[in-house]
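Appendix B, record 7
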Amino acid sequence: MTGTAKPIGQTTGNALIDLFGRDKAIIGVVHLAPLPGAPRYSGEDIELVYQRGLDDARGYLAGGCDAVIIENHGDIPFSKPDDIGHETSAYMSVISDRIRRELGRRLASMSLPMPPFPHWRSPVLPGPVSCV
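Structure tokens (predicted):
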């Protein structure tokens, strides 16, 4: 990724070129383990969930990926949108921000399923899909 990337939405017409300096990019997807509040969450220490996500992100970048996106895919089977608590957005925001700070790279964070979360807020930008 280029060090002079423009903010999302303020590109010159080709976001991939603006973000990565070329017209194609490889983006690795970090699937987090189940988060607190998810049906399959078993009480795992959240620090281990974060560390596993960080290790995966490092592996993708070391393997040649241009960027990573963080998803809560471990939360399957997904709850209905009205049953998803604030803890999902809170853990996703904190874990994504910690990974971004540790790696010093911009990344995307997406909460699944993609309902219009009234409470979803990323560490940097509002919305269910955010580049941070």
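Remarks on this record: The radius of gyration is 15 Å. DSSP finds three helices and four strands in the chain.
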